[in-house]
Write a structure and sequence with these properties.
Structural class: alpha+beta
Helix content: 25-40%
CATH topology of one domain: Glycoprotein, Type 4 Pilin
Largest sheet: 8 strands, antiparallel
CATH class of one domain: Alpha Beta
Strand content: 25-35%
CATH architecture of one domain: 2-Layer Sandwich
Number of helices: 18
Shape: globular
Distance between the termini: 70 Å
Length: 666
Amino acid sequence: MFEKILIANRGEIACRVVKTCRRMGIATVAVYSDADAEGLHVRMADEAVHIGGSAAAESYLRAERIIQAAKDTGAQAIHPGFGFLSEKADFVTALEAAGLVFIGPPAGAIAAMGDKIESKRLAAEAGVSTVPGFMGIIESGEQAVEISRDIGYPVMLKASAGGGGKGMRIARSDQEVVEGFRGAQNEARSSFGDDRVFIEKYVEQPRHIEIQVLADGQGTTLYLGERECSIQRRHQKVIEEAPSPFIDPETRKRMGEQSVALCEAVGYTSAGTVEFIVDKDRNFYFLEMNTRLQVEHPVTEMITGLDLVEWMIRIAAGEKLDFGQSEVKLDGWAIEARVYAEDPVRNFLPSIGRLVQYRAPTESKAVRVDTGVGEGSEITMFYDPMIAKLATWGDSREAAVEEMRRALDAFYIRGVNHNIPFLSAVMAAERFQAGRLTTNYIAEEYPEGFQGRALPDVQRNRLVAVAAVLQLRAEQRNAGIAARDDLGAPPSLQALGPIRRTVMVERDPHAATVTVEGEGFAVAYDGGRHHIESEWRPGQPLFQGRLDGLPITVQVDAAGPRWKLTHDGATVDVLVLRPRLAELAALMPVKVPPDMSAFLLSPMPGLLVSLAVAEGQEIKAGEELAVVEAMKMENVLRAERDGKVAKLHAAPGDNLSVDQAIIEFE
């Protein structure tokens, strides 16, 4: 077994590998860029080596620096994590030449599966179902149109060297093919240094389901069940689960056996994932093979009891798998939600900044948090904006979903925008709970974009009761401070008797009466009655306790005299007043926000790549106005209506902040 392993990655996956190495008694070496000098993975590893500038091209993609770091520290093997160099065959070859072991598959398998065109040819030869399409090199948009017409719309344009949703476009017309081909090429060139694009048939009502494989290179290749990864945006996975609510045992077996056949055909070893697109009739088609550990691997670990990182290390060290296919059992259900620094109400655009406050849910058998950040960490423009992966387990899908809803309520993040409200909304949705998923889920459920979640009346009423107790606790604290100043003693809550307050939820008043009852409080209001028990004290960010005997968690932010309460994906503004003050407050006018409709504002921090208009130019609705690049993704900003450009407030090459004016209209 290895004595020391270098981890050629950063963030949560580097921390994840460190944890397994610690348990195995293996020393670890972290590498870091300028931006990651204070990173959690740097602090967790036994040693750390600086390898370059903040941009990945200056650090984590510099194979020669990573190899030198391994030599300098005496590391015997390198775990690549995912992304960066994890699927670069040349990197594996260079490691072998340097006398180092790559913890992953051989270079030949990576090369074969890393090229989507070649991988589909090999999959077809191995008897794996494949999607109809054109796998050759496409030279121009015009050729792409001809090919698309032959295949039949809709089609999918994909970067041959792609991954992570970059360089992918769906096209339903000739014009969309031309535009999509250009955009896919540009993103592929920027992200992968390879602008080849291929086209295949787009499957309607598709599900994205993948098979986890594990091969020891000594005669044993296994499949470890499937993962459903259909909840996606911009072709990037957001929520994953294992097993799939759609796949039956027979289909699982056929998908698994085809995945094993593909692995054996290319001489695959280590952990890997074979991805399929599945239609409404459970017909499945090969998409690609990821020759690395997947971001969503925790859900497979939670239902199989296997540590995939440990087995990757053991296989790289020459060990054989000590169990067979019949011994792979799926226990319960697991769901993973990717918590990103992004703004879901702005079309999920990235949010950068410092995590001013960060408190993850408490981990247990049912709750797992994989993260590479902590309070004070910075989410930068240089890397993927993931904050953490939150995974929950239950003995059924319903139980796993409920665990996830509770865990999301307890995930307290301030300083950057994040997608927890969206994740909570998905978990609460009837369609998701019924398992009716497709890769179009987000577009179908939120055709106008995610605008936040309105709480059902039952949950709003719970917040009325919670707010009344919060206010009572705050008043008790204030009375205690005043009593100390007067050298007296504050009256007990029991001595005060029933306390009447008006709870204004988004200016909607609710008359509430709070009474001490047993170990908690009885709150009677115009919508009913609740009993609440909690040890919450002013200043604590989470109100955790029991409401009518069931657990409840509410995030609490004080905003002057108001409370901002976040629960089940929704944030409501609450003001608790004495009844007479509430009557007067209802008469106060509401401040109207300024009208910014005459401006095109940058929806995200990023680089202004281009401007398609000039001052004085007439524009039409839908016309391209500007392109802003963020996280290596090009975002085209279009005119919402006809108009005329009055003034340009920014120029190509400018670094934009969120809501910065780009164009002013007459």
